[in-house]
Write a structure and sequence with these properties.
Distance between the termini: 22 Å
Number of strands: 10
Order of helices and strands: HHHEHEHEEEEEHEHHHHEEH
Oligomer: single chain
Largest sheet: 8 strands, mixed
Shape: elongated
């Protein structure tokens, strides 16, 4: 699907179409959606993940002590919630990890393999210094190290190595394995670290792609005005939410309400059924067809956002 040629024009069209009809929605629900999707990071509550953990994915422009404290303060009156900060390997500084740890919340951060660590060697009975990449780790299962001292600051953390060969990896790769394991710093339950970190990709990273190359080309706006960019960013996220909603509505009612609107969002690859368009793309295609069509194509505005 081709990207939008004019991000500002398209976002304005979508946003105004949405805003003029959403006033009939429950105001608190609308404001909640605006807050959650209008800012980074994205919040996922216990009703979605079946846990009391809120998972946050940090992008570079938010990764600061002030930003982390702001997020922590948002949940100061919710002692039953724990926050897990997820970040890639560029944000593995000990000062940042230490700050998160002192807030009483959790972090799972990709580790660089060339970091120096000090760990207790149970076989020899004393502390050894080595590179993370030189630590022993299993091939077919995860490997855990507890209370490892990191860098010259000797900051204590846990280290988790993912497997490089397994049944699930074999099903997802062409050669049945990956070249190197994923390595994480974490202060949470090491057995949950890999699973929790995976939520970056199943529920967060795809939104960044929709904002940019997969949809609205936000990176091509060229604006240097922070207020203008913030408004554009907010509108884009509202549009993504709406297009996702109408996409799920379409897939659930395509035979009844959309019998003459065919969107082939699956294809066959090597004899297996594979998705051709993302959920967002299906909604985007449907909206474009309805917006430019002379015949009536139903676009709902009063619906329940379902878990897909």
């Amino acid at each position: 699907m081709s990207s939008l040629s004019s991000p500002a024009k398209t976002v304005t069209t979508l946003f105004m179409s949405f805003l003029t009809t959403c006033l009939s929605l429950n105001s608190s629900s609308f404001l909640c959606s605006l807050f959650v999707l209008g800012r980074n990071p994205y919040l996922f509550g216990s009703d979605v993940l079946k846990t009391d953990i809120i998972l946050l994915s940090l992008s570079k422009n938010l990764l600061s002590l002030k930003g982390i404290q702001y997020v922590v303060d948002l949940f100061a009156d919710k002692p039953n919630y724990k926050i897990v900060f997820l970040a890639d390997r560029w944000f593995g500084s000990t000062s940042l990890l230490d700050f998160i740890d002192k807030t009483g919340h959790f972090y799972i951060v990709r580790a660089k393999a060339n970091y120096n660590v000090w760990y207790f060697d149970e076989k020899d009975g004393y502390v050894r210094k080595t590179k993370i990449d030189d630590l022993f780790h299993y091939t077919h299962k995860a490997t855990y190290y507890h209370d490892v001292q990191l860098s010259n600051s000797k900051f204590k953390t846990n280290i988790v190595f993912s497997a490089t060969k397994s049944v699930s990896i074999s099903n997802k790769t062409s050669n049945g394995s990956v070249e190197e394991p994923w390595i994480f710093f974490t202060n949470c339950d090491v057995r949950r670290a890999i699973k929790w970190y995976s939520y970056r990709f199943g529920a967060i990273e795809f939104l960044f792609k929709d904002q940019k190359s997969n949809g609205f080309d936000l990176q091509k706006t060229g604006t240097r005005n922070l207020q203008a960019f913030s408004m554009m960013y907010t509108c884009i996220n509202i549009c993504i939410l709406y297009l996702t909603c109408i996409s799920t509505y379409y897939t659930r009612h395509k035979n009844k309400l959309y019998s003459d609107v065919k969107i082939k969002y699956f294809t066959i690859v090597k004899g297996k059924r594979a998705r051709k368009y993302s959920i967002f793309q299906v909604g985007y295609i449907l909206f474009k067809r309805a917006f430019g069509s002379k015949k009536k194509i139903y676009l709902p505005f009063n619906f329940i956002l379902t878990d897909v």
